[in-house]
Write a sequence for this structure.
């Protein structure tokens, strides 16, 4: 009798977490309805592909796009994606998705989709391929205040509902929130917030992040000040003079693509216009991977790494 009650309790608990279809979720400024859980999903870029894998959805993917044309996969991701085809090395075409029989495209603006480009939610709608947009990228199509971790949590929660894996999504969100809270408890009392500049790439003009890109949330949570936070932009280019004027005390280098972080660091150290910048004079750099710098489950690692660099006196000893 006890065993029967236990099984009934587990069944009810599981049923309470199962999605009911049709299911409608909010994606940027749109409502997207799913008649059933996707079985042939396609993700774009490393970070969104990593999210689906973390949610345990490898068997419900038919491919991914936009990785090998710009980036490389670490060993763990290569192993998890073994046998799954890359449908396009950079931006996919509608034909790529149609040939794969995709029933969901998880992408974002400037992450696989471009305004007025060939692949958008509107262009795929006639083919019955719904699109879920990365929330951080919504700033390209609608007004947003600044990037926040709540955007990432919303994406994970919505994906959990879409695929009916809410328990796993909430578990991942809870783990991330716990790690970020531990950093916050250490840095919250610091009166001065060190000035931080993020350098993605570019020689004539550096590519960085304004307040609408995920680095804003990373730097804020680590107790720093993004020197480009007055820019109502996501990933954007600025001029070197604006970097010198803001005199960052720490420079974050995003490591991906054919030019390694060492080459990027050496370029910055040699740049004649930057010689008066404190971070250059003191050679204070932090290196983040692409996964750590863009919306992903690796953002907690990025915040921990940044906080330790900004406040070494607080993180010099491992937690007990």
């Amino acid at each position: 009798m006890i065993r029967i009650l236990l099984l009934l309790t587990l069944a009810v608990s599981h049923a309470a977490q199962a999605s009911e279809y049709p299911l409608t979720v909010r994606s940027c400024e749109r409502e997207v309805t799913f008649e059933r859980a996707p079985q042939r999903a396609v993700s774009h870029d490393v970070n969104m592909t990593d999210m689906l894998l973390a949610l345990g959805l490898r068997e419900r993917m038919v491919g991914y796009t936009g990785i090998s044309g710009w980036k490389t996969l670490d060993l763990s991701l290569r192993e998890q994606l073994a046998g799954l085809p890359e449908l396009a090395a950079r931006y996919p075409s509608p034909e790529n998705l149609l040939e794969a029989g995709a029933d969901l495209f998880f992408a974002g603006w400037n992450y696989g989709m471009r305004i007025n480009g060939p692949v958008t939610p509107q262009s795929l709608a006639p083919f019955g391929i719904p699109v879920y947009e990365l929330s951080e990228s919504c700033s390209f199509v609608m007004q947003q205040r600044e990037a926040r971790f709540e955007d990432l949590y919303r994406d994970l929660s919505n994906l959990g509902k879409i695929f009916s894996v809410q328990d796993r999504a909430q578990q991942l969100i809870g783990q991330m929130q716990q790690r970020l809270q531990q950093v916050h408890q250490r840095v919250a009392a610091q009166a001065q917030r060190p000035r931080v500049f993020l350098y993605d790439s570019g020689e004539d003009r550096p590519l960085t992040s304004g307040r609408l890109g995920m680095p804003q949330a990373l730097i804020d949570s680590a107790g720093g000040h993004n020197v480009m936070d007055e820019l109502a932009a996501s990933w954007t280019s600025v001029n070197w003079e604006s970097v010198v004027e803001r005199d960052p005390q720490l420079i974050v280098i995003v490591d991906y693509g054919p030019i390694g972080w060492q080459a990027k660091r050496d370029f910055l150290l040699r740049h004649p216009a930057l010689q008066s910048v404190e971070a250059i004079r003191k050679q204070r750099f932090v290196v983040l991977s692409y996964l750590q710098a863009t919306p992903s489950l690796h953002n907690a690692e990025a915040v921990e790494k940044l906080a330790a660099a900004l406040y070494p006196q607080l993180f010099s000893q491992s937690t007990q």
In short: DSSP finds 14 helices and 14 strands in the chain. The chain has a mean pLDDT of 93. The first helix runs from residue 2 to 17. The CA atoms of residues 237 and 311 lie 28 Å apart.
